[in-house]
Amino acid sequence: METLDDLFAKVAQQVPAFGGLFFDDKDQLIMYLVEGELGAQAAAVAALRMVFPNDERLAGSILVLPGKYGFLQLKKWHDSMIDVLTIPGVVFTDIDDGKNQLAVGVETMEIAHEVERLLGKLGVPRGAVSIEKTEPVEFKLRQRRRPLVGGLQIQFGWPGANCTLGFIAIRGGVNGFVTNSHCTHTQGGVENTEYHQPIRPINPWDMSNRVGLEIADPTYFTGGACPSGRRCRYSDSAFAQSPHPSGPSVTLNRGYIARTALGSTQWNGTDTYRIVTESEYDVRVGDIVNMVGRTSGRKEGRVTNVCTNENVGTNITMLCQYRVNVGVLGGDSGAPVFRIINSPAPNDVILYGILWGGDAAGTQYYIFSDMGAVQRLDELGSLYTCPSPFTC
Amino acid sequence: MCKRFTMLLGTMLMLSGCNLFQSPLPLPPPQTTCEATPGATNDSADVRLAQRAPAYGGMFFDFDDQGNRILYVYLTDLSQEEAVKQAIIEILGPRWLELPMYPREIRVLQGQYSYLQLKAWHDCMSRWILAIPGITMTDIDDKKNRITIGIDIGLKAAKKRRVIEAVETALERLDIPQEAVILEEMPPAVPKRSS
User: Fold this and answer.
1) Predicted confidence (pLDDT) per residue in A266-278, tens digit
2) Chain B residue at shortest CA distance from A199
3) pTM, two decimal places
4) Chain B residue nearest residue A317, CA to CA
């Protein structure tokens, strides 16, 4: 399978001045061309369209920045510096499309001179490489994980907004996962939001992390039980088809949630909770429940309110929600909420619902929508969330 | 004579007195009657319990002094204890009694309001109260045998007073006794996604 670097190299083979491409934080597409060869813009755009046919993002405006290096040169140097990764403390090497240079991530700058020495031996000019201090790779909920399970970080939009994958499910015969309605481009209604796990890569053509496509997010209703001047729903839920219909392939582990230590986002990739049944309006004040979110990790708390009506922002009211006496943080939206029952086997759980909100400071409470509400006919409808042989 | 809330337990406020406040806020017109609002809430197990045993007033889990997990149940008429216990076992038992962590012991507490009464009031008032800017939530509080109304803790004093007065007016027009309602200051809920 061709990597994105391979595809960019194809563009550069046609237009050697091409130095890479990226989106800035205002979603503006920016292309590097080697300084003095800015006249190659039209040829570069044509080559991009040939290598990435039918990509609508190339139809918009493209700004050009003068770069120092052509992409082929950067790739040649990058391919030659593979042994840099053998130096203890080096975390990654990369062609940094946003800076038109190479990058080496190190755990501590004390090893920078060792990296520089090896780069010199390999003939890679020091000026073409940025050596940056970075966090070591750890096994966390915020890293790339396959198969997908509940509790992992997902990202949508650009710049990417973080949410948590709630749980894997089958809806109307379609495989996918559930997250929050407010973790889509627009809360209520389907806008084909694309999801990436763990992040949407900086390069717009890199689809390697794409895991899903929003296909269900009921609109908010007015009238009836809804207060005047407000829009209501019974659950903050949306369903994403997974894999994305246009790929890449993604494996799903239905019925499983990442199992971490209390208060930790560290996950070894194998420990899981197994969903053996669901709660439908069976939650009681005093129930002890757990959640697993990409920011807070796993937290345990007690249900303090059942079936509350909650005002959110200026005009949304969530009907019949559930409060828990534990604070959570931004990014935990979508987290699965469950009760550990250890029956019939250790780490078996009852799926209670999906977390969506809490107090702004993240110190007092969180709120979740119950599975009964998520599966109302006017919400997502019936879902299959358990692994075989369980039937929920 | 004026209606007003009095402060209890730090951030908790309880209704008392009466109100002359004429508010421009969206309020029920005078003599509004409470009618059932279909689909307003989904406490189906509670409703089934209450239909079987009308004295039922809500339930919650807690621990006793020895650390045992107990299910506490409010009753407006303690003579219905056995009927309520039987209804709980029949309606919730099949699932609850299969799971080892659920309590085997049920203790009854004297309640003032039946669940059906609280639910009728809550369903009736919710759409009016939640339309008042500054209100954060409404709930049937199973642990207190009351209705709770949340008010944004960040409101300035003058705004808070207006909100409280609007709540008083709405409750009066809906003929809901203030003693059945607890007004509690709390931070509003916000979505928990991050950039």
Assistant:
1) 999 999 999 999 9
2) B195
3) 0.77
4) B130
